[in-house]
Amino acid sequence: MKNILIIGSVGQIGSELTMELRRRYGNDNVVAGFRSTQPSEELANSGPLERVDATDVERLNEVVKKYNIDTIYNLAALLSAVAEEKPQAAWNVGVNGVYNVLEVAREHNCAVFFPSSIGAFGPSTPLDNTPQDTIQRPNTMYGVTKVTGELLSDYYFKRFGVDTRGLRYPGIISNVTLPGGGTTDYAVEIFYEAIRNKKYICPMAAGTFLDMMYMPDALDAAIDLMEADPSKLKHRNAFNVTAMSFDPEIISNEIKKHIPEFIMEYDADPRKKAIADTWPNSMDDSCAREEWGWNPKYKLGEMTEDMLKEISKKLGIGY
Ligand code: AKB
């Protein structure tokens, strides 16, 4: 029986991952950890809930002991654009927090999931078909914390035998919780604006290709990796995973297939452009496919259709 703790359960990935884990492992076996943002009623009423902060190691220890936790999904982090505004806070959560989680995991024999990112790459990384093992010299604080988290997680596996596993997530597209402060947020916002106003002012520069993934695939990826046969894993922290790569024009044209009157104009945010220009155009995720069977279900067409349908339902606005 798995006893799971999610740190960051009210965030973009955490809110949906917590509910999916509860569906799969039973509500009582999945503890939703939150820090300051109030959890949704669904999250609060469906299973155990605890205030936990990755930077507070004593509290972390207490909760892990109380619930006899054997697996921790550590999703606490500041996204890339916010991390550039608050680099000290980003380091505290993204490095000190990760270190605390690994120490607690070592002491209590827990497995740990670590979400790295395409942000772990940098300007000297090959941009196309970015290999699993390549140059990682990011020039953002977000990237620095992600590379550090990958290295620390691998170190704890090799040195102490902690079962650490991680993914380099691309931009995640979801119709449930909005992202906050990421570079790839435009790929979610565009759907809300297309339905509300039939128009979107895009903060991403024309021609910027980035890897993306629909949330159902992002959840499967995390859970499948944690369930994978350890004897098959040649890598651990962290696997390249992607489902699609597009630039703003491509996603706008896909939306136009459903909403022909939709128009997009550009007003590129130079801070986001500076970050996105150092990230891969498209990653090679063949190691994830070979080592634990990664195989995303949603490509651009299916994702767009589902996003429009679900957001239209949620907003009560037809298209
Ligand atoms: C961000 O844009 O910061 C994240 C990411 C790709 O890690 N969505």
Task: Tell me the series of helices and strands, N- to C-terminal.
Answer: EHEHEHEHHEEHEEHEEHEEHEHEHH
The CATH homologous superfamily of the largest domain is called NAD(P)-binding Rossmann-like Domain
CATH class of the largest domain: Alpha Beta
- The total of beta strands comes to 14
What is the makeup of the main sheet? 7 strands, parallel
The percent range for strand residues is 15-25%
Poorly predicted tracts of residues:
none
Helix amount: 40-55%
Brief characterization of the structure:
The chain has 319 residues and is α/β, with parallel strands linked by helices. It is 44% helix and 17% strand.
Set down the secondary structure blueprint:
Blueprint: E1 4-7, H1 12-25, E2 30-34, H2 41-45, E3 49-51, H3 57-66, E4 71-74, H4 80-85, H5 87-108, E5 111-117, E6 128-130, H6 141-160, E7 164-169, E8 171-173, H7 186-197, E9 199-202, E10 210-214, H8 215-227, E11 239-240, E12 244-246, H9 248-256, E13 263-266, H10 270-276, E14 282-283, H11 286-292, H12 300-315
Parallel strand pairs: 1-2, 1-4, 2-3, 4-5, 5-7, 6-14, 7-11, 8-10, 9-13
Antiparallel strand pairs: 10-12
Helix pairs in contact: 1-8, 3-5, 5-6, 7-9, 7-12
The chain binds 2-amino-3-ketobutyric acid (AKB).
Describe the structure.
Helix content is 44%, strand content 17%. α1 (12-25) packs across α8 (215-227) and α5 runs parallel beside α6 (141-160). The protein has 2 domains: 4-169 and 217-240, NAD(P)-binding Rossmann-like Domain (Rossmann fold), CATH 3.40.50.720; 172-211 and 243-315, UDP-galactose 4-epimerase, domain 1 (Alpha-Beta Complex), CATH 3.90.25. The chain contains 12 helices and 14 strands. The chain has helices at 12-25, 41-45, 57-66, 80-85, 87-108, 141-160, 186-197, 215-227, 248-256, 270-276, 286-292, 300-315; strands at residues 4-7, 30-34, 49-51, 71-74, 111-117, 128-130, 164-169, 171-173, 199-202, 210-214, 239-240, 244-246, 263-266, 282-283. It has 319 residues and is of the alpha/beta class. The chain has a 7-stranded parallel β-sheet, sandwiched between helices. A 3-stranded mixed β-sheet has the order 8-10-12. The radius of gyration is 19 Å and the shape is globular. The model has no long low-confidence stretch (mean pLDDT 96). 2-amino-3-ketobutyric acid is lined by residues 79-80, 117-119, 169-172, 182-184.
